[in-house]
């Protein structure tokens, strides 16, 4: 279920547009990062096993791409409503209680994301002088994925609070069941 819907206010509409723009940008960067990771792994295999000359930087580069892809992918999945959700109890709740449960869930997620952003920023500041062994880049670059991905998710969650409370567009829609 996408994390977008009909907004009641001008601020909500503006935030929804910004959320959509950020998600499109996030998805484009995610595609680039995944392609770069795949090319890096391919080069590692090619050079190690066919040319018998392993590249020293590809494994580290692929690892950092995976970190970025995981957090950007989490933000894109949150926007689309594609994270795993337990909806068993929501389906049995009255509509008002189900809506309250969704709001409480979003509030809890909001608090967790704030903690992740603050912890991520602290980690970036601590590691900004540390250099990675192979790529020789500041370790703050791979660790920056945590506050950036969390901030994107936080913006999507905040935007979802501006949606109409009619239950049509939620991260978890009461009564909606995902089939694998």
What does this protein look like?
With 180 residues, the chain is mainly α. It has one domain. The chain is 68% helix and 0% strand. The protein is built from six helices and no strands. It has helices spanning 10-50, 58-80, 88-92, 95-127, 140-143, 145-160. Helix 1 packs antiparallel against helix 6, helix 2 runs parallel beside helix 6 (145-160) and helix 4 (95-127) packs antiparallel against helix 6 (145-160). The radius of gyration is 20 Å and the shape is elongated. The chain starts with 9 loop residues before the first helix and ends in a 20-residue tail after the last helix. Mean pLDDT is 87; it is low at 166-180.
Regions with pLDDT < 50 over 5+ consecutive residues? 166-180
Q: Choose one word for the global shape.
A: elongated
Q: Largest sheet, if any?
A: none
Structural class: mainly alpha
Mean pLDDT: 87
Over all CA atoms, what is the radius of gyration?
A: 20 Å
Query: Span from first to last CA?
Result: 14 Å
Provide the number of structural domains.
1
Query: Fraction of residues in helices?
Result: 55-70%
Quote the beta fraction. Answer: under 5%
Quick one: how many beta strands?
Answer: 0
Oligomer: single chain
SSE string, helices as H and strands as E:
HHHHHH
What count of helical segments does DSSP give?
Answer: 6
């Amino acid at each position: 279920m996408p994390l977008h819907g009909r907004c009641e206010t001008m601020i909500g509409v503006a935030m929804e547009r910004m959320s959509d723009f950020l998600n499109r940008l996030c998805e484009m960067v995610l595609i680039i990062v995944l392609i770069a990771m795949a090319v890096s792994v391919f080069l590692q295999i090619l050079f190690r096993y066919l040319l018998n000359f392993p590249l020293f930087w590809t494994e580290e580069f692929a690892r950092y791409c995976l970190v970025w892809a995981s957090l950007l992918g989490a933000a894109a999945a949150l926007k689309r409503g594609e994270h795993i959700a337990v909806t068993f109890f929501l389906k049995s709740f009255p509509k008002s209680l189900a809506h309250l449960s969704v709001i409480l869930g979003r509030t809890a997620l909001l608090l967790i994301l704030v903690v992740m952003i603050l912890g991520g920023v602290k980690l970036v500041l601590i590691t900004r002088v540390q250099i990675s062994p192979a790529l020789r880049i500041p370790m703050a670059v791979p660790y920056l994925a945590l506050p950036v991905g969390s901030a994107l998710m936080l913006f999507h969650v905040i935007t979802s609070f501006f949606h109409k409370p009619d239950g049509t567009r939620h991260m978890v829609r009461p009564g909606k069941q995902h089939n694998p």
